[in-house]
Structures are given as structure tokens and as C-alpha cells.
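Q: I'm building a small set of examples for a reading group on sequence design. Run inverse folding on the following structure and report the sequence directly after it, with nothing in between.
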């Protein structure tokens, strides 16, 4: 509830300006999609016929640079109810069952080449230490302590594999940017994790976690830019979107906007982004739906 004004501002900032003025009265966020959000939604459940089609032909080019249009979706056909709340993500025909029924910890790998060797698709979660990665993993799988929170800097860094519904992996990568970590630990992160990204053929996408409460950090930008340069599909997952302001008075939507501005050079087309909070559950179901469409497309 508390987040609505933030979302509203964000939505107005980024997306409503793309729509014809006649449609803006239905904003903000009168999204029928939200109420029909279902974990067991069958493929093709997002129907463009439920609401009158909004013609965006004038702005279609621009829309492509703002919204994440998934495979199989015509940008000209996008309607407001296909956009996931609190994100720039359009749901397309590949969206499917997003319910987490079971999760198993499959083990930790010290080296990328020790990771499970099977064909299951996987999503890697990455972010600065303390960004809320463990909390988000626990929230996604609805377990309190699947991922251990508050790991200590400088400890051996591991790749942890969680098997979800016996069909796909959620992967917890070592956090980066420990404030007090020695230089050697940072270098370790870099070769270790980059090796994983460049060699993991079953990687569907990286969820790059960015704390929405702090102004853009260079290390997060470097990471996003490195992924962009290496053509590794990324979704930016803004965390802790349950505060309307931080102690310095900055609002999450301002930080989110400035992060997007700063990665523009490496991403001519906006990567998908979504606001989440493990504290309130904001964005959880939406993120799972987004992951389901990426996974189903990958599987095809
Ligand atoms: P990690 O180091 O990235 O795994 O981060 P953790 O999940 O251990 O969380 C770091 C700190 O952020 C802890 O104090 C959490 O309680 C806090 N935190 C995590 N998620 C949220 C969130 O959604 N909202 C708020 N307000 N705090 C959070």
C-alpha cells in the first residue's frame, strides 16, 4: 500500500507519457492485470482483447526503448494491462506457471566448472553485498532461510544452486563490493563470477539487484555495463522498495530513474527492470511471472 505513490510517480515518469493523452485518465495503475495475477496462469493468458486497444503506432519506436517487449510480442499490440505493475516489463505469449511449489538446495560450487551439469535453465542473482539478495531469494521461494542472510565479507565465495519445482535453477552468486573487503577478495570475485557468466550455457538471465534507496553506485553501473557489453541478458531488480525516502531524503524512484539514465550508453534498448521488496512482497509474483516467460521462451 505504502508503495503506491512511489509506483505511481514512477509509472507517470516513464510510461504514461508514451500513451495517447486520452488514455492517461485511466492511469495511474488501473491495471486489470494485477487483480487477475495468478500463479498458475496458463500460457497466452494475457489477452489484448480485454481492454480497448491503445494505438501506440506513433510512439512504437520509443516504446521499444522504454518497455521490455518479450519475444513473440508486437510492440504495436502492447496495451497498458500487459505491463507488469512497478516495472517496464510487458508480459507476452510465453508467460506460464510461475508458482514455486518446491525448492531444494543442490549444493555449493567453488568453481564455475563444478556447477550442476544438466540442461535445466537457470537465473543467476547478483548484487552488492547487503543489497537484499538472500532476503529476495527467501521471499521468491517462500522459505525463511533457504539462503543465509548476512554473510561475512572475505569468506570463501560460493555459487549456490537451488532447484525449483525440479525444473529450473535459482543461483545465488557471491555478492560484490564489500565495503571493507581487501583488494584480493574483490579480484577473486571478478574472475570467479565472470568465468561463470561467460561459460554457463544454461544461463537464461541475470537478475542484477540494485538497492533503490541509495544513489547509483559505480560498482553497480560497472557490473550492468559489463553484462551489457558481453550480451548477457539482464533484468534489473530494484530492492527494498518499501521506503518512500531514505535518510538523505532521496526517493527510490529518483534513484531508479538515474540508474537507467546512466546505463543508456550500453543498452540502447532498456533492459527489463522491476521494483521489489522482500519486506512487503512487492514485485515477487510479478518477477516470477517475468522469469516464467524468459524460461519458457528459452525452453522452446
Ligand atoms: P545480502 O547481503 O544481499 O544477501 O542481503 P540480506 O538479504 O542479508 O539483507 C541485507 C539487509 O537488508 C538486512 O538487514 C535485511 O533485513 C535488509 N533488507 C533485505 N531486504 C529488504 C527489504 O525488502 N526491505 C528493507 N527495508 N530491508 C531489507
Amino acid at each position: 500500500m505504502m508503495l503506491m505513490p512511489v509506483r505511481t510517480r514512477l509509472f507517470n515518469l516513464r510510461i504514461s507519457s508514451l500513451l495517447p493523452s486520452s488514455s492517461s485518465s485511466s492511469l495511474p495503475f488501473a491495471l486489470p492485470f494485477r487483480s487477475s495475477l495468478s500463479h498458475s496462469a496458463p500460457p497466452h493468458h494475457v489477452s489484448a482483447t480485454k481492454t480497448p486497444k491503445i494505438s501506440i503506432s506513433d510512439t512504437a519506436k520509443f516504446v521499444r526503448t522504454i518497455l521490455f517487449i518479450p519475444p513473440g510480442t508486437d510492440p504495436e499490440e502492447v496495451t497498458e494491462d500487459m505491463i507488469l505493475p512497478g516495472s517496464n516489463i510487458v508480459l507476452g505469449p510465453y508467460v506460464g506457471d510461475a508458482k514455486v511449489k518446491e525448492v531444494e538446495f543442490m549444493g555449493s560450487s567453488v568453481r564455475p566448472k563444478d556447477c550442476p551439469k544438466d540442461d535445466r535453465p537457470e537465473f543467476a542473482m547478483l548484487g552488492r553485498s547487503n543489497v537484499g539478495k538472500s532476503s529476495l531469494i527467501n521471499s521468491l521461494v517462500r522459505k525463511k532461510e533457504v539462503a543465509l542472510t548476512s554473510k561475512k565479507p572475505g569468506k570463501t565465495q560460493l555459487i549456490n544452486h537451488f532447484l525449483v519445482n525440479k525444473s529450473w535453477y535459482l543461483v545465488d552468486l557471491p555478492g560484490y563490493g564489500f565495503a571493507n573487503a581487501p583488494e584480493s577478495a574483490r579480484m577473486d570475485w571478478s574472475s570467479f563470477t565472470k568465468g561463470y557468466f561467460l561459460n554457463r550455457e544454461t544461463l537464461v538471465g541475470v537478475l542484477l539487484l540494485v538497492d533503490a534507496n541509495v544513489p547509483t553506485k559505480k560498482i553497480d553501473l560497472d557490473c550492468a555495463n559489463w553484462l551489457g557489453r558481453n550480451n548477457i541478458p539482464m533484468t534489473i531488480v530494484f530492492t527494498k522498495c518499501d521506503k518512500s525516502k531514505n535518510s538523505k531524503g532521496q526517493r527510490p524512484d529518483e534513484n531508479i530513474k538515474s540508474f537507467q539514465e546512466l546505463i543508456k550508453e550500453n543498452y540502447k534498448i532498456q533492459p527489463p527492470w522491476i521494483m521489489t521488496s522482500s519486506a512487503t512482497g512487492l514485485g515477487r509474483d510479478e518477477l516470477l511471472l517475468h522469469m516464467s516467460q524468459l524460461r519458457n521462451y528459452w525452453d522452446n
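Residues 1-56 have pLDDT under 50 and may be disordered.
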